[in-house]
């Protein structure tokens, strides 16, 4: 994945002037939406992917170029290609210091010297009270690292008895300066964001241009604007130059507004005297190929921000009390783990499950790859969940409506058997609605008794081992119903499931011949051990291409599988006693669609909930107070789901630990002298907030206003303004942009 | 002349869907024409008829309002109201000779970065074909002095 990203970045920056070839053995793009990224690298960027393990890199002494010798499966003949540069994808290993530290701490390491943990408590080390997260737990990507960091925070909190004293804003921030009546003094700070901005446009030129805009007192370039040093620099510049408005040119306010608001606030200014010009996500990243246009656009965006910020004025945040009850939707492993984590910390939890029992999809799973007993774990989780005095479990329950605001949500349910309606009040919501096992009607599935899914096989191995003993030959087909046109993503769990079941078959029946037909074996981290073990125990792996998929025919009680062996380069025919299809998971589309409508949450194109930020906020949903965990986020193993459940608990606790929640300042205000009590706002508000008060004017309850601004847009007298998005500010941005139009 | 015409386009994008989709287009490095300039609003329902009319008065060649998919609006139905308002303003634009086709309501979800980039490209091409906003022919100098 890392290699693909670097290859794409190279293409973006240098276009076709650099040819990029990526040598690989198996393409392991099993993370959320990674497969789509891989496909784009092939189809849109024209990166040349060569499936081969090159054996020699030599320098050509005359030219200094490097030659790579490799052989592909299609032709066993060694081939040579010459490159200007060779980049090695080298992965991770644990440093000797960490190994030494582990010895001192007395925690167990696995055979690769990573911290040893278990499937059901993936961030807890062998010693109580010591937790692990990130790479030391195992090689992983950024989103998973972030999840584990939160998970470890939650697990550590379980060992502490109480929450620390809450810090108040007044402890951190100086008093706000009064800027009313002052001349506008704008400070502009333009970030180069490493190469992200500075590599596309000349930041110095933009800064120089911005210095000439009206009311600008300071215009500066800052290195990585969000680094601690840069933030301190901005803070001191605001004070030194007595600035009273600030514009940051950098990345999206969606991810970094809060950070810069804190900086402005530390410098003694109200946090709403800030405007961010999104010159990265909405400029340099999308106009990489047109640096001059990107540069002009950066100037436009900064000019718009300068015009807008000049009209800002100090605002007070709207603060609401937090209802410390939590709604957890979904009673599978993830939902129960989340519910227990919160309930053990003393929070009231409503656990809503649509089916009649707890356990979810994991109920049909018996063993994990590392051999843990899933059924026993679910029984224990269910027992604890059902008997916990802080958890109220509602099975056969359906969510039907939702209202309120972060910290004070109200969700309506209908509960079987009589489907009576009840409403619960909660401050935070965790969605753990899971995914469903895919069951595509392919390869005689549900038509022939010898054809089953990996999930079916898991049950057969546990319950009817004598049947397994009778098998001479077993064939498994990977990627059935995933990585296809209809379902383009990778299901992530199927490769490890195939290995797990192949090894268990061999445990019961060492004579069985097993062949796994695969497209890419995706065994990240320690799953590779199982892959190696399977090969050493004689499991045959044969690769197939999507356009040359295996052919399957019924043959009495048996199944005949025809496939092309790329190494022998000929069709092979295997008659098997059992054909196992690796079908993976698909999003529970009906459920996620329904809930995304009720809760106003976005989904990915394949029906999983879409997190607020893929890397930085993998468990947070865009609506404050909503979190996602488990397979409702993307296909994943139980181990990964449990880590997300623990992580979501920690994220939820960041809100629950406080008595109040900050809802920002975007609320509508009525200027009474302009109001004609025409009732248009009363009718327009989606939340029925405005009403005509005793004095005969429209009144908008600040506590209930959600901040959409529909009333402000519809008010014919322009008596209503939405704070933060006042008309004069929007107009100023517009005029700022169009100033250059002749 | 027609070849060198670079339309100025204003895109009012709602924070929860379209603006997020625009950021996603960025993180996926999906390129679209630099003519599109985004103004963030909390909800597409916040975009006032006067914002759109003023944009054209000051010489924008095209404007679109981008909100959430129908049924997905973070504020229940702000996008539906925005859609109706856009229809109304299109008629006004037709009446005054600017042309309603220079204004569009577009919907998308936060995850549709590709869709954002594609609609930005399509809309820009469409406006490029329409040619410059006729208002500019008459009020060029006047609006310039008013802006300053």
Folded structure, characterized:
The complex is a heterodimer of chains A (742) and B (148). By secondary structure, chain A is α/β, with parallel strands linked by helices. Chain A has 5 domains: 2-83, FAD/NAD(P)-binding domain (3-Layer(bba) Sandwich), CATH 3.50.50; 174-309, Rossmann fold, CATH 3.40.50; 327-436 and 587-659, FAD/NAD(P)-binding domain (3-Layer(bba) Sandwich), CATH 3.50.50.60; 439-583, FAD/NAD(P)-binding domain (3-Layer(bba) Sandwich); 668-722, 2-Layer Sandwich (Alpha-Beta Plaits). Helices cover 32% and strands 21% of the residues of chain A. Chain A has 22 helices and 33 strands. A 5-stranded parallel beta sheet of chain A has the order 13-12-11-17-28, with helices on one face. In chain A, helix 14 (454-463) packs parallel to helix 16. Chain B is α/β, with parallel strands linked by helices and 148 residues long. Chain B has one domain (2-140): Rossmann fold (3-Layer(aba) Sandwich), CATH 3.40.50. Chain B has helices spanning 18-27, 49-57, 78-95, 113-130, 135-147, and strands spanning 9-14, 36-41, 62-67, 103-107. Chain B has a 4-stranded parallel beta sheet, sandwiched between helices. The chains are: A alpha/beta (742), B alpha/beta (148). At the A-B interface, helix 9, helix 10, helix 11, helix 21 and helix 22 of A face helix 1, strand 2, helix 2, helix 3 and helix 5 of B.
What's the structural blueprint in terms of helices and strands?
The complex is a heterodimer of chains A (about 750) and B (about 150).
Chain A: H1 2-14, E1 21-24, H2 34-43, E2 48-51, E3 56-59, E4 66-70, E5 79-83, H3 96-105, H4 142-158, H5 169-172, E6 186-191, H6 195-198, H7 203-211, E7 216-222, H8 228-240, E8 245-250, H9 253-266, E9 274-278, H10 280-284, H11 291-309, E10 319-321, E11 326-329, H12 333-344, E12 349-352, H13 374-387, E13 391-394, E14 397-405, E15 408-415, E16 420-426, E17 428-431, E18 435-437, E19 451-453, H14 454-463, H15 465-469, E20 473-477, H16 494-508, E21 513-518, H17 527-536, E22 540-543, E23 551-555, E24 558-565, E25 570-576, E26 578-581, E27 585-587, H18 589-599, E28 626-628, H19 638-656, E29 660-662, E30 668-670, H20 680-684, E31 691-692, E32 698-699, H21 710-714, E33 720-722, H22 727-738
Parallel strand pairs in A: 1-2, 6-7, 6-8, 8-9, 11-12, 11-17, 12-13, 17-28, 19-26, 20-21, 20-26, 21-22
Antiparallel strand pairs in A: 3-4, 4-5, 10-29, 14-15, 15-16, 18-27, 23-24, 24-25, 30-33, 31-32
Helix pairs in contact in A: 4-19, 7-11, 8-9, 11-22, 12-13, 12-19, 14-16, 16-17
Chain B: E1 9-14, H1 18-27, E2 36-41, H2 49-57, E3 62-67, H3 78-95, E4 103-107, H4 113-130, H5 135-147
Parallel strand pairs in B: 1-2, 1-3, 3-4
Helix pairs in contact in B: 1-4
